[in-house]
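ARCHIVE CARD
SHELF: 3
SLOT: left
DATA:
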Amino acid sequence: MPPALPLNPTEFSPQFDAAARRAGFKAEAYGEIHGHTLLAYTKRTPRPRPKVYLSAGIHGDEPAPPLALLRLMTDDFFDQRCNWFICPLLNPTGFVQATRENHGKIDLNRDYKGPVTSEVQAHIAWLQRQPNFDLIICVHEDWESQGFYLYELNPENRPTLAGVMIESAKRVCPIDPTTVIDGREIAEPGIIRPVSDPLLRETWPEAIYLRNCHGQLVYTTETPSALPLEQRIATHSAVLKATMDQFFRQKMSPNPRMA
């Protein structure tokens, strides 16, 4: 049976912190906003292992991603196969208020180019103290989508994980059937691969900043908010489990570009 989820948003951070510490993670407070501590969690292995970054909760009206990370944490998913870097709740004031924006009505996911918000400034300062990542996944949900979809930023044409993400998601929820999603033409069903230079955008979401500064394989995953919360959580959990299994197999392959 899935673990109980916090019904009150203010319960999320204490529950996640306790679960992460039990799982061997180190907590780091990298800032504070309106009485909420901004927390990142790291778990490093003694042997060389891939470095994986996960984030959630940058939009406060998207509860499924942080809750999916909490569920995976309580399920002991974050094992010794990787070095983990997790920011489970980037917008705590929005999460508590169930608003997309932060307390100042600013969309944090448009503030990574010349940031003005304290949350993003503190997050970037924390990221700059970390190593580059081998895999980056920003976990989201979308109030307008008709099904699961994802963005892939892969400028070096590394072995893609998009296919396994779609296959694992479709076992739990529908894949967005449209050919234009979020104003962009798809490359494959449910997969957006931007062809224009993302660095030319006037505003940067977290994923673009990470692609520019911290890694060359970046995914943004989206579940449809119209689905029941439990179904969205289950979809994110299934996608992350399947993705990490495939990613680790690729890394352990004698010829990873052929994996």
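SLOT: right
DATA:
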Amino acid sequence: MHIHSEELYLEAEADIKNNNYAEAFRKYESILYEEPDSAPAHNSLGWLYKTQFDDYAKAENHFNTAMKCDPLYPHSYFHMAALFMDMERFDELKQFLEKCLKVRTIDKSWVYGRYALMEELKLNFEKAIYYFERAVLASQNDEKIKDYNQDIERCNMKMQISKKHDQ
């Protein structure tokens, strides 16, 4: 990114924080006009399309473009995983997470946490617990470890409820 584009990007990010989405949108578009391979701008536009317009096709296109422009830029991977999760595209999410494990700029505990959430949504609580435990093992952040342990407790509770209703 050039200095002007970097400044414009930071202004757009501030606009997002202030809920000024239209102005942020214009700034991201302006950045892409000058620098069509800007991964941060594509990622942020994708986020806007997903969260503000519910246009998942355009969001996915921008996330994919961001990953092609800069394969090490992690944010587009996070948003693409959320898109797959929201759309319940679990087969694609699983393949995508396998890819994420090979990207060196992505926190591996996050990847295992996403596997776990996917399994939890599919009501596969034992698998979810397994992946949350993998997330704990991959994490070096005490707060994240606490969160993953709470996730494990939640899955244990859901497993008990599920067994009760199966009987």
